[in-house]
Amino acid sequence: MKAKRIITGLIAALMLVSVCACQKSDTVGSGGEAVRLKNYMTETERNSVSIGELTLLDEDVTEASPDGENTVEIEWWTDKDYRKQFEENKKTYTEEEYDELMKSLDEAEKSGGFTNAYRILVNGRIYYGIRPPYEYDGSKLEYVTSINGEDQEKAAFDSFNDEGFKEYCKSFLNENVKYGAITQEQADQSYADMPIVFQSVVDGTWKELSRSDSTNSMLADLFPGVRSDWEYNREEVEAIKDSVREMSIYDEELESNFIVHITLPPNFDENKKYPMFVMSDGVWRFGNCPSLRKLMENGETEDVILVTIGYDYAINGTEMAVRSKYFYENRKEFIDFITNNLTPYLSEMYNIDFERSAFYGHSAGGVLAHNAVFTSDLYENQPFKYYIIGSPALWQIHRLDTEEDPEAYKSDYGYWDRNETFDKIIFACGGENEDPEYEEYYDGYDTTLEGIAHLMERLKEHGDTKSECKIYENSGHWQFIPDMFVEFFRKYYGKN
After folding, report:
1. Last residue within a domain, chosen from 208, 242, 276
2. In terms of domains, do 462 and 363 share one?
3. 461: which of 150, 232, 347, 357 lies 20 to 30 Å off by Cα?
4. DSSP 246-284
5. Interatomic CA distance for residues 373 and 386, integer angstroms
């Protein structure tokens, strides 16, 4: 049964008092004075906050139709719809990829165009299986299985009830599981939903699912949730779930709702002061919390409050369109949210040692972390001492139409013009084998590892002797992350 969230009205009321009472930071707590950051949240934002038990392990709820029958919703796209989407997202493709897509659409248009099912929902669940043809009547089916130049391999079946077609569907879904596109649970559910989808088209009982605006289609709340996109070990999370608080918090500037998971350390004492370790990309990084907490349980490190920032469960945080919105296009607003809303709110809930707290971001999140540390001097609140900049995809910035100055990161956003000293500590990291993974996107700009090297050169030039860099052997873009976390915790939060 889904845990009921608790609206924290009392906390919100206390925060209102604190904001009215002072214009500068005050202190709270015992067991060492803890800084309370100034909270800039609006009343609407405060009232939106809810905190409760962990719901990530809950099954995404789907709504059955009132009459108990299955409801199939289909969003049909024509070749013109696809052309519009590709044109609007041109910068996400290489020149070669884009030209190939346009060529395929040109050929389709010459042949009279096409209509196919872009998105299908079954009782609110997203369907990942083979799509039925437009206006399918239950007769023979034919699908292209591979394209090699002008040669096409096709699979033909008598109907969707053909046993051969069922095996074809199962093979298609299992291949997607193999390559990490969907989970086995999603594959099994879509296989079960296949005859329901096809029969709805034959009978004409499907309902129209209207197309969202193309720029927001990935973000639209079209289905109950995407908890299945979160990556974690269920058994490990089950073991610590009683120490996890799940916060829902809204930001007006970004017009977005975030899911923040707060993992408290073993034997948590509300009167004690703890450093805080904040991670972006909660969809992946919450899965690292059990192993980090294990370091505390084993006495290898001191106790630390772990915080992961994810998106509302209706938003797929693995999608590049989503990550681009927060880490690139609106990264200033995202930094505002973290610095002036989220961390101040957390400071009123817990005694946090901000002088020893850290922020971590990887890839696009590494761009965010780099931007955050070198604009930190522009904020009154100083929630972090350490910044982990993991495999920063700085080369992606110049590909954005929204970027006013794509070269600004090369001067660390003017930080050295505004300051003579640097009071933060950076840990920059990457995998030694990762540069070739994205070489088609560099366009003559720094690779990931070159960007890290040039950052470290600039820090050295300006007299920084505390920041560090490590490039992990035998690792690609992300494989080193678990080892890096352990290394960081042992060095900066170790007991020895």
Report:
1. 208
2. yes
3. 357
4. EEEEEETTTTEEEEEEEEPPTT--TTS-B-EEEES-HHH
5. 9
Q: Looking at the DSSP assignment, which residues form a beta bridge with residue 430?
A: 471
Residue type, 236: E
Taking a C-beta distance cutoff of 8 angstroms, is the pair 278, 358 a contact?
yes
22 and 166 share a domain?
A: no
C-beta of residue 41 within 8 angstroms of C-beta of residue 13? no
Q: Please, which residues have CB within 8 angstroms of residue 301's CB and are 6 or more apart in sequence?
A: 295, 489, 490, 493, 494, 495
Q: Per-residue pLDDT for the chain (496 aa), expressed as one digit of tens each?
A: 333 333 233 223 333 333 333 333 333 333 456 678 999 999 999 998 999 999 898 755 444 444 457 899 998 999 998 888 788 767 656 788 788 889 989 998 998 999 999 889 888 778 889 999 999 999 999 887 654 444 557 789 999 999 999 999 999 998 877 766 677 878 888 999 999 999 999 999 999 986 543 323 333 333 335 577 889 999 999 999 999 999 999 999 998 899 999 999 999 999 999 999 999 999 999 999 999 999 999 999 999 999 999 998 878 888 888 899 999 999 999 999 999 999 999 999 999 999 999 999 999 999 999 999 999 999 999 999 999 999 999 999 988 888 889 899 999 999 999 999 999 999 999 999 999 999 999 989 999 999 999 999 999 999 999 999 999 999 999 999 999 999 999 999 998 6
Residue 257 shares a structural domain with residue 375: yes
Q: What is the DSSP string of 117-171?
A: EEEEEETTEEP-SPPPPTT--SS-EEEEEEEETTEEEEEEES-TT-HHHHHHHHH
The verdict on 373 and 231 lying in the same domain is yes
Structural contact between residues 83 and 391, judged by C-beta atoms closer than 8 angstroms = no
The answer to whether 395 and 451 have CB atoms below 8 angstroms apart is yes
328 is a domain residue: yes
Which residues make Cβ contacts (< 8 Å) with residue 235, sequence separation at least 6? none
Whole-number Å distance between alpha carbons of 83 and 79? 6
Residues 256 and 167 in one domain: no
CATH code for the domain of 261? 3.40.50.1820
Secondary structure class of 41 (helix, strand, coil): coil
Encode 85-111: b = buried (16+ Cβ within 10 Å), e = exposed. Answer: bbeeeeeebeeeebeebeeebeebeee
| Residue 350, in any domain of the structure | yes
Cβ–Cβ under 8 Å, residues 479 and 431: yes
| pTM flag (> 0.85) | no
Q: Do 165 and 270 reside in the same domain of the chain?
A: no
Question: 302 and 409 share a domain?
Answer: yes
Domain limits for position 263: 6-59+227-492
Per the DSSP assignment, residues forming a β-bridge with 157 are 141
Whether 319 is covered by a domain: the verdict is yes
Q: Are residues 352 and 454 in the same domain?
A: yes
Query: Tokens 């707060």 identify what position?
Result: 262
Within a domain: residue 1? no
Indicate the number of domains in the chain.
2
